Amino acid sequence: MSKENGYSVDDIKVLEGLEAVRARPGMYIGSTGSRGLHHMLWEIVDNAVDEAANGFATEVSVTINKDNSATVEDNGRGIPVGIHEKLHVSGVEVVYTQLHAGGKFDNDSYGFSGGLHGVGASVVNALSEYVEVEVATAGKLYSMRFHSYADADGKIHSGVPEKPLTELGRTRRQGTKVTFMPDSRVFETVEFNSEIVAKRLRELAYLNKGVLFRFTDNRVKGDNKYREYKYDGGIVDFVTYLNGDKTPLYASPIYFSGTRSTEKGMIVCEIAIQHNDGYTESLFSYVNNIPTTEGGTHETGFKSAYTKVMNDYCRKIGALKEKDASLTGEDFREGITAVISLKMNSIQFEGQTKTRLGNTEARTAVESIVQEELMPILENLKNAELANAIADKALKANKAREAARRAKNMAREKSKLENAPLVGKLSSCTGRDPEQNELFIVEGDSAGGSAKQGRDRRFQAILPLRGKPLNVEKRRIEQVLENDECRSIITALGTGIGEDFELKNLKYNKVIILSDADQDGAHIRALLLTFFYRYTKELITSGHVYMGMPPLYKVQKGSEVRYAYDDAELAKITKGLKGYTLQRYKGLGEMNPEQLWETTLNPENRSLVRVNIDDAAYVEHLVTLLMGDKVANRKEYIMEHADFNKVDTFEDKVKID
Q1: Which of 92, 253, 281, 599 is the least buried, fewest Cβ under 10 Å from its Cβ?
Q2: How many domains are there within the chain?
Q3: Among this protein's residues, is 516 annotated catalytic?
């Protein structure tokens, strides 16, 4: 309730120190859910990795303790323990209690750093129940502890030092060890996901050649408790891993690197490339170990220089005649797996998620390095077979691209890519505001019929699928365009696909996959997500793709009906309840239009899961593994990860007394 007489200067709140972080945690770590929780860990891990990236540490250890606290330790230089000249407290206390304080604002202490804003350690302190810091440096061990508490008035005091930095005695150790307990008063969950942590550490090990990363999860028993990651081949090993479920065109990845001096400092660039017999481009870029999933100037520089070098090479070997037009970048990048790793100063990120590099000097540097380093590798007689395989694949890709272009033109002429292929399929909505509209892609005519009757036709459109979509992982684009279900989806979206994709033309703000809660439904979701990932990836990265979550159970006692969306919710609903009827839904068609609206379509009640790409390299690996041709690898993954002991013990309807 606002004051009737407005507000005065007395109403302006000044948040001092770490209070600002506590008041608006999402501004600093993105969210208070699982993603924000893991972001806390990455902030501390990044500090340790910065020591390794600058040559001061060789080992980084991460431990998830039994109580869900996390410990990160490195064997680097250690946080400075001296007394700060202006603040008159130790360097450890400055780093953990002062926002925008650290050694990464100039190039004296760190040549390259993933954390440039000096907020990481202090933010973690502000949002933790406690933080314990041990620093081993110059033969001495120091310790300091911070904690957050509520006073008698209920006010939270964050990251308060319990006492000044204390010298514990002599030690042979070297480095920094940090343990923190995320505050359950801030986070929706304080349980770290071991697979998320392991994937990030493996990625960091690839990007930091020769550095040993240890991961221990003391919450579990058995072989998965402890893991090590160390790759002496660096990003060459990374590319080999990414192509592990594909068929490479040549045995070993191409690797080259270079350094360029700019007005803002040095730029060090490493690039590894290997082609496979597939049709998709897999390009992953990093700047100071930070994934740049939206690309940026460094990727632009790589693409333009790579295309020029490859065209020049093709003309040198006679694969392209003087009269022939140059091949496009898409031709040369068909089936490519490439990793670009940049180390640089003064990073400027752009884009909605701050994962696109904006530094113009990065493009110039990468272009120069690619042009200077790649051509000699191709011209080396030892690499003739390798280089010719790349050229041959590009020439075939060019012919296929021309065929795809003709297929697109034919499709446009045949259907005008408007309504013809959707006659009798798409039930459009009456609203014309794409920001408000939703498209439900529904499995089967039966569920489609219920959805059409149950929806709010003002903003909800329904597109039933009359068969399983194509597995696009195994098909070229012209084959995708020939598939009726794929063409219907492309037409409904309005964005085009592949190189023609235009997000601004999207007709629906939410694209929702709605399938049955059985094996066929899961398969359809996988096929659709593969299609979106391969041909409309920006649809996912921009947050437009969702999975609808219809209820699994209907609990009825007399005239009262409640729905449970998972086993945990079912247990909560039925706890202490007697004389109810339990129905297990296995298909959307089992619900009438009113039930489907109430449980799955109504924005007030429904559950949606937004599809994200948190780890682009791992997603690429998983899509290839699960949807590609290597059956043995897929079987091995399923045997390792599937829960074969889970049994659905419910009949369609069960009376519980």
Answers
A1: 281
A2: 4
A3: yes
